[in-house]
Amino acid sequence: MSDTRRMLAEMADPLFAELGPAATDSDWSRLDELGLPLLLVSEAGDGFGGDHVDALTVFRLAGYHALGLPLVDRIVASREEEGTEAHFHLGAFARAAQIAGALDAALAMSVAYVNERQQFGRPLGKFQVVQQELATFACEAAAANCAAMGVAEALDRGDAAFEIAAAKLRANRAASEGARIAHQVHGAIGFTQEYPLHDLTGRLRHWRSEFGGDAYWSKALGDSVIARGADAFWPDLTARAD
């Protein structure tokens, strides 16, 4: 992580943690002071001048803390005109990154809960079936994070249509599986509005369908393979990873 990106994370993380899901319009001034709404606007345009990996950092943290203000949407709209394909694609990347962040938070919350909650004289986390479920959850969260990083790097190179389709589809599926496991290990408490898991999984449910659901991105990936031909799929895929 570059020094600039580390500084960005160190500024945004505590602020997002403080504001959380309860953030209101009166808190916009604090985000404006850091220049976050103009994160992807060039310095020549009086913006922050960040790249897409910088945006990934902020998007993930906004998801991790279930930030209650649409900062991510404002960042996307400042870079691409609403209603355009570019705006839709950048929005899909943003949602994939937010999903990755929220999954990390829900996973951490779930691990902490099963290590504290006692059942039959020992912590829930000592039961093998619980460990297996959390291992699956960790894999899903890691896959979503890796996919989002792949998009950020591809966007900074130029063409990222394939990475966006793959990442949003992968993040959507990870959101479903992660939310299931989080609520399963928490039991009934996870569904209560007072418990913070509710804020995370509620947003995961919405983010899955925004900027393209499973069917949309599955079709987009399938169409791209058909257009290029099956024989070109593997060479094209490996070339993008070089």
Overview of this structure, please?
- The chain is an all-alpha fold and 242 residues long.
- It has 2 domains: 1-79, no CATH class; 85-242, Butyryl-CoA Dehydrogenase, subunit A, domain 3, CATH 1.20.140.10.
- Helices cover 71% and strands 2% of the residues.
- The chain has helices at 3-19, 28-33, 52-64, 71-79, 85-116, 128-157, 161-186, 197-209, 214-228, 230-241, and strands at residues 118-119, 122-123.
- The chain has a two-stranded antiparallel ribbon.
- A hairpin with a 2-residue loop joins strand 1 and strand 2 (122-123).
- The mean pLDDT is 93.
Fold blueprint:
Layout: H1 3-19, H2 28-33, H3 52-64, H4 71-79, H5 85-116, E1 118-119, E2 122-123, H6 128-157, H7 161-186, H8 197-209, H9 214-228, H10 230-241
Antiparallel strand pairs: 1-2
Helix pairs in contact: 1-3, 3-5, 3-6, 4-5, 5-6, 5-7, 5-8, 6-7, 7-8, 7-9
Strand order of the largest sheet: 1-2
The overall pLDDT, averaged over residues, is: 93
Determine and state the CATH class of the largest domain.
Mainly Alpha
Outline the biggest β-sheet: 2 strands, antiparallel
Number of strands: 2
What's the tally of helices?
A: 10
What count of structural domains? 2
Q: Write down the overall geometry.
A: globular
Q: Which percent range describes the beta-strand content?
A: under 5%
**Oligomeric form:** single chain
**Low confidence ranges:** none
CATH architecture of the largest domain: Up-down Bundle
Following the backbone from N to C, one meets helices and strands in this order, namely HHHHHEEHHHHH
What distance lies between the first and last C-alpha atoms, to the nearest angstrom?
A: 20 Å
Radius of gyration: 19 Å
Q: What is the helix content?
A: over 70%
What is the assigned CATH homologous superfamily of the largest domain?
A: Butyryl-CoA Dehydrogenase, subunit A, domain 3
